[in-house]
Amino acid sequence: MLEKLIKAAEAGKAMDQFKLGEVYFFGVDIEKDLEKAIHWWRLAADQGMTEAQYNLGQAYLDGQGVGQDLKEAFSWFLKSAEGGLAVAQFTVGGAYYSGETFVERDATQAAGWWAKAAEQEFPAAQFYLGLMYFSGDGIPKDEAKAVGYWRKASEQGYAMAQVNLGSALCAGVGVEADPVEGVSWWQKAADKGLGMAQFNLGNAYAEGIGISPDPAKAVTYWEMAAEQDVAEAQFNLGSAYFNGQGVAKDMTLAIKWWRKAADLGFPEAVENMRLLDGQRTH
């Protein structure tokens, strides 16, 4: 099987050159050899194969099989993006959005590339394009479009989009308010382990937003989020222990969680610790 692949790659077939590069890169049924992987990917990339171009970009970015060269990395990512590969379009958009690694920040370019990837149903691009529409960064502000892109990404299971879609529905921002549906999206993201979704779901149970109030469940979700260092959840959890809401009163645990939130700079927790430590507030 491997011999057949090598012969096909040597015959100049781009797909087989790409596959052989993968074999050498991961060491599948052959000794791992990054330089040979780069050799075969380059041959495929020179024939316009976008997946090989993207892999070359990653190799130059990480310095695997070649010397690290950020300029060369971006040039291959850009070729791949121009060839229509969604993940490359997302990467190029991210480069323009951050302006930290390859190019100077250009929000308009970022939005343009993310839009191309979003059209190919790339969920991360849909999520970030939604953020840009929501903030009006690089494109005209349009909350309805933001929510539309978050919904598309959410339906593909993208947890961060599910959190934002849930928040938009609960608040009625960019879409007609529907707290019941909003909470259902928070639940999906919380089930994936996303801390901010668990925090929001805890708030929903505490306040009865789109769901029947349940202080004990609120504490359960805040604790999940607090363990992931979500400062707001740590503060709420500390307050629950302080007040005995949904859990037995426990000053020791209240202080523990407030202190953790204070260490992360959460203002209300910092103020509580100043009071408890006997320091004068300002």
List keywords for this structure.
16 helices, elongated
Structure explained in plain terms:
The protein has helices spanning 2-10, 14-26, 34-46, 50-62, 70-82, 86-98, 107-119, 123-135, 143-155, 159-171, 179-191, 195-207, 215-226, 231-243, 251-263, 267-276. The chain is elongated, with a radius of gyration of 25 Å. It is mainly α and 282 residues long.
SSE arrangement:
Elements: H1 2-10, H2 14-26, H3 34-46, H4 50-62, H5 70-82, H6 86-98, H7 107-119, H8 123-135, H9 143-155, H10 159-171, H11 179-191, H12 195-207, H13 215-226, H14 231-243, H15 251-263, H16 267-276
Helix pairs in contact: 1-2, 2-3, 3-4, 4-5, 5-6, 6-7, 7-8, 8-9, 9-10, 10-11, 11-12, 12-13, 13-14, 14-15, 15-16
Summary, kept brief:
With 282 residues, the protein is mostly helical. It has helices at residues 2-10, 14-26, 34-46, 50-62, 70-82, 86-98, 107-119, 123-135, 143-155, 159-171, 179-191, 195-207, 215-226, 231-243, 251-263, 267-276.
